[in-house]
Structures
1.
Amino acid sequence: MALDLSIDFGFNGLFRDNPRPGFSPAVVGKAPRPGHRLTIFAVQQVKFCPMSVGRMVGKNLLKFRHGPERRESISPVLILVFVCLFQNSNDGNTIKIQTPRQKPVTKIQVSTVSRSAPKNDRQLRENMDFSFVTERIIALYFPENVTPQAFHQGHGQAAHLLSTKHANNYMVFNLTEPRRSARSQHARVRELNWVPGLAPPLDKLCSICKEIETWLNGDSHRVAVLHARGNRERIGVVVASFMHYSNICGTADQALDRFAMEKFLDDKIQELEQPSQRRYVDYFAGLLSGNIRINSAPLYLTHITVLGAPAFEANTEGVVCRAFIKIYEGLMPVYTSGVHRITPGTRQFTVNVAGDRRNQGLQLRGDVLVKCYHKHPNQREVIFACQFHTCTISDYTLSFTRHELDSAAYDLRFPLDGAVEFHFSASPTPRLPLPAPTPAVAVDSADDPIVRWDSYADLLAGEHDSEMDHHGECRC
């Protein structure tokens, strides 16, 4: 055990006899034995400012020496000598501070702490990240591999801390799957989750920001807790979106909060890794600011061109990839292509959407998800995916480079210069002749169950609990 000493000397108290505006002394160090003398030398002039306990303003602000009082060979701007007498008392270790011409001016309680935190506390910190985004917005994050017991204990500790400081004035906004462990510990929990692995729908981003704003504006004492488990980027998406939202819809006194949110993103999130999440935050910011004009006209997808040949299997039977595409509108499957057998040296291939629909383009509206898979004998694997919203499309050709595609951005099996182009028409009938099939790419039928399987139908139907108890158009 050791005494950790962190003292913030008050300006008015210590400089009552000889006030020197612009100077603030402080000492940070380990306390000596009771009854021992401690001589403190202030050796640097600094601007006076409120100091938080345990932090120093300026470099080499103070030097201290245990033992008999003696001068050091220094040339300070100002030298102030204080004698600290350490005594034991019934209420713990106390410090009496006095100057040569003063009686003791203050009495400070020194807490006795262990050199290392208890094992349970260390494990709890490893399993939970409790961070302030702003004074009234808190981020509560748990890693995916946290045990059920640690998850429950973490929420218990967070609930105790929040209720002690904020009573009933806090709301937990859950951004991941609903969990009984979270609801059982907190009085107010609002479920704002979306499908794992995807960016939130554009109207979902808008409603999340409005709900947070409504809660905070209801009372100046309220705080919002953003909770996520397994994917810290969900908190990043919401914080980044709310930062843009408050910049347009907030008040002038929220400027400092926006700076704090930006700092939180830099420190805790850095850059969002998933391209579609970055895109949707940019969509949201552009629509709020007016930089993106809403396109309400219907769009009909005629064909998709994939530039470059993904290599997802060895060159067996003269094939390096068996690609097929699925298109979802609002998570509902609306199109499945045949399986395209990509041969070595293929520079591009085209998925003729309108051709598969008797020369009728596929009408799309709102949030669109496109996923390209490689078909294995008994399973499938994502080659690339992308999400976009039709209200943000201002041209009839929409292009995404490799680094703008989910999965492909970090997969070297997708060509470094690869890209995907979506071609649209303003009417069901294509405005231009449809491209001819790629001669080197044969297309198999899409009757295989692996190809037909749709995986988004019931993702949000039930609740998920780590205890294995299953309870299971832009308007911004």
2.
Amino acid sequence: MRRSLRWALPLAACLACAACHSRLMRYPESEKPADCPRGQPKPLLSRDNKQLFGPLFRETGQGRAMELARLEGGIGLIIRHSGCDAVAHEFVFELRGRPAPVEDRGWWYARTARLLELIAAGSPDEAGLRIMAKRLDDASAEAPPYDTPLPLDDFQSLSLRAAKEDRPERTHVTFRYAFKL
């Protein structure tokens, strides 16, 4: 029994690494797989943006990708791209400490708007990111409950969620954009 467990852990680690391995994409990726009408997602972050450190874009599956970067002040950013027929982007900002209570929704709407403005510079979708930032900033005065859809038009909506991590030194803010067909 003990002998079989000795091999199980390294084997599980190798299988996990092989399953998680994904091909590093080149900037920009323009191929369109036949069964994903809109093609693979493209990077939203610009390598020329001086506010971003080490942006990385990875394909994670059919119609899916992930972007990673770090902003000034040690703010982490993960963007999850998904959808072949409809588009969805989930932005997860990881801030150090607790800059404001999670219950202060107006502050978090405004802060997320400022973070979107920072990452918009040089982005292939700079105008769209700035429109989203403006919508969040406008919503900060009303401070709607988290996960409330904020319509941009008939086909696009945003929502925001701020959540404390279990550790007191980190706060996560999740922002979601959806394009409905």
